[in-house]
Structure formats: structure tokens, C-alpha cells
Amino acid sequence: MRGFRYLAAVTAIAGLVAGSAATASAATSQPARPQAAPVHLTGGATTVTTAPGVASALLNKGIVPLATSPGSQSVLSQRGGPAVRFTFPVTGGRVSLSPLGGQVRHSGGILFLNAANGKKIQVSRFTIDLTHADLTGIVNGNPAARVPLFHLNLSHAKLAAGKHTVTARGIGITLTATAAKALNAALGTTLFSAGLNLGTAGTLLRF
User: Fold this and answer.
1) What CA–CA distance (Å, rounded) separates 62 from 75?
2) Torsion sign (Cα): 175, 181, 183, 189
């Protein structure tokens, strides 16, 4: 069922990018019109906001996440405690309908620092892979070390389209087993686990 919802949501995104005049709800319930050529992205930004309690849990264990340029971060005051919002510029990519999928590339990253022991790890140059419903990144600046970091859940995403933009809000993100293992090993902690709900993402794409 989750896979079906994901497929429907991605179909909606692809339909909106292609210039469909249908609403997001209609796009998720009706087949998208075929389009041979992919839509090339020219810019935009993706934000990631930590779930309630995540920022506090990290800081209480001495784990400090810091955005690396040109990414940025801000601290939000919420009812469940402080949250951190990261913003990463979209540098390009493309979305296609046939086959359904595509990639959205970003610049910037996140440096995780363990203040207790000085250990650190950086993940950067994120790519949203709509084909596989995940977000990948490179580790410590090594292009050969690209790994899946987050699983994406688009089942509750809210979609909207402009003349040359498409936005998606409310994308759920959970930590992959690969990322959890790498973070724990690099930082000398057992804090991270596969499936950890990290929060939500939103993206604005320009084409």
C-alpha cells in the first residue's frame, strides 16, 4: 500500500512539472499523460526540518549537526522542543514520466560533530532519487562514496504548481540502515538506528 501511495505521489509531481492543469488530488488518482522528454530543473531549494525531539536528543548526546556552505540552517521554536531546519540549493536534475522517475541534485551538506570525542562525519551533495524513493549523499567529500541516507515517504505530500515551479511539502524522511551504521561508526555512538524518523522535507523546483 505504501508503495502504491508513493507511486501515485511521484506521478502527481511529474504531472505538475510537465505543466498539467489538474490539481494534486486529481493527479494522484488519474494516470499521468505520457511525455517522452524529461523536464530539466534549473534551480530551487529543499528544506529538511527535524521532527519533535530529534534536535534535543542529538544535542543531549553531544552530537551537533551543522550545515555546510552553501547550505544553511536555522533553529525553530516548536511546542515539542527546538527543531533545526536545513536548506539546500537545487543545482539541477530532471524528472521524467517514461519511465517514471528522475533525480534532483543539491549543493551543500551537513557536518555531524561529536563534541564529546571530537569525531565527525560530513554528508553532502544530496540527490533526491524519485525512482528509488530515497535521498543519497557523498561521505566526507568522496564522490566514490555515495550512499543512501534517507528513505522518502511522499504519501502525505502536499503539491502545488506555478508557471515554472512545482512545490512539494510534508515529505517524510527516515534514516537508512546504511546511514545509521556510518554515523554510529564515525561518531562513536549508538544513537542512530535504521528507520529513525528524522522529520519532514519540502522542495521548491524551478524549470
Assistant:
1) 17
2) positive
Number of domains in the chain: 1
Domain with 93, as residue range(s), is 2-206
- Give the residue among 13, 202, 183, 167 at the shortest CA–CA distance from 110: 183
Q: What separation in angstroms does the CA of 87 have from each of 43, 156, 162?
A: 13, 21, 21
Q: Which of 7, 8, 10, 27 is nearest to 168 (CA)?
A: 10
DSSP string for the chain: -HHHHHHHHHHHHHHHHTT--S-HHHHHHSPPPP-SSPEEP-EEEEEEEEPTTHHHHHHHTTEEEEEETT-EEEEEEETTEEEEEEEEEEEEEEEEETTEEEEEEE--EEEEEETTT--EEEEEEEEEETTTTEEEEEETTEEEEEEEEEEEE-TT-EEEE-SSEEEEEEEEEEE-HHHHHHHHHHHT-----TT-EEEEEEEEEE-
- pLDDT tens, 81-109? 889 999 999 999 998 756 657 899 999 99
**Contact by Cβ (8 Å): 167, 159:** yes
The per-residue pLDDT for range 29-82, each reduced to its tens digit, is 445 444 447 889 999 999 999 999 999 999 999 999 999 999 999 999 878 788
